[in-house]
Amino acid sequence: MVWLKLDLQYFAADEKTEKATPKKRQDTRKKGQVPKSQDVNTGFLLLLVFGALFILGPYMEGTLTGMYKVAFNEYIHRELTEEQTHSMFVEMTMEISKIMAPIMGVAIVAGIASNLLQVGIMFTGEPLKLDLKKLDPIKGAKRIFSARALVELMKSLLKISLVGVITFSIIWINKDQMMMMSQKSVEGALAFFGTITILMGVDSALALLLLSVLDYTYQKYDHEKNIRMSKKDIKDEHKNIEGDPQIKAKIKEKQRQMSASRMMSEVPEADVVITNPTHYAIAIKYEETKSDAPFVVAMGVDFLALKIKEVAQSHHVTIVENRSLARALYQHSEVDQPIDEQFYKAVAEVLAYVYQLEKKI
């Protein structure tokens, strides 16, 4: 039963039930793994492009009409030579570029804006790195027949059906007018079909944007699910960030030992050691060239205090018992730092006593 309980605890610790930590989110973002819906890109692209077509329609019509006029009024009378053909090709390419450049510019802006809206500014080369695991046929088959692939299939069918219904409905509503276009002028027919095309495009784009909200919600949910962490993962991450507690404890212990060793080497140079007498020991030194006030060269409690007193006795450093002063100095002083101003008078009296005792004055 004990082993069974331990196994259950182990599996529970490995179960990914916890939300991702900020560090895990940052790491996945660096790898290019962010919630993102391609439908947002498609919807924005279609909406802005068809909006640009609606606004730039007259300009495009004028440019195309001018191309036709030049072609049938000028180019048709030119001699068919290499130079003339090259000249006509360059001129036509420039005119077509004038038409296509604004549309391409709008498409680029739409692509950048839709990505910034979803993931913000992000630069990473991780998705471009060669990963042989992606060529694994077994994993590839699992992806094809996974729940995610089924969701993508259903989503694609829904988009195709929705766009098909929208375009068919618009055509069906305007079918009578379409039948009468043979009685209209060429310009009138082009204007009508252009309007119908833009209407179908804008309506389809709005429908895709509506679907993209649902798709982005699903993508975000799926992303959060994929980056979930187990309690063990969180603990390991904390260890990596903060360091293993056992190692940190050993380092601190080593630092304490080094600090204690250094302090012990300074005790023989002290002028006096003020004690509690058993729990506290503070070694004080006064040196005019180093500090205007007496400073602490070593201090400690319990075992360390005992060691300080032993070193002081072995080097004939005077030990003075002052319970309240020793405790106060320990609480308000730092090693290698001058004592606080509030202790000047009390320490001066102790030093004066020591100097008299040692006949230094």
TrEMBL record:
Record flagged with keyword Lipid biosynthesis: no
GO biological process: one example: bacterial-type flagellum assembly
GO cellular component, as recorded: plasma membrane
Keyword line: Bacterial flagellum biogenesis, Bacterial flagellum protein export, Cell membrane, Cell projection, Cilium, Flagellum, Membrane, Protein transport, Transmembrane, Transmembrane helix, Transport
Subcellular location, record wording: Cell membrane
Main subcellular localisation: membrane
TM regions (residue ranges): 40-60, 99-124, 156-173, 193-218
Membrane protein topology class: Multi-pass membrane protein
Presence of the UniProt keyword Nucleotide-binding in the record: no
Function: Required for formation of the rod structure in the basal body of the flagellar apparatus. Together with FliI and FliH, may constitute the export apparatus of flagellin.
Family: Belongs to the type III secretion exporter family.
Name by which UniProt lists this protein: Flagellar biosynthetic protein FlhB
Protein species of origin: Halobacillus karajensis
Gene coding for it: flhB
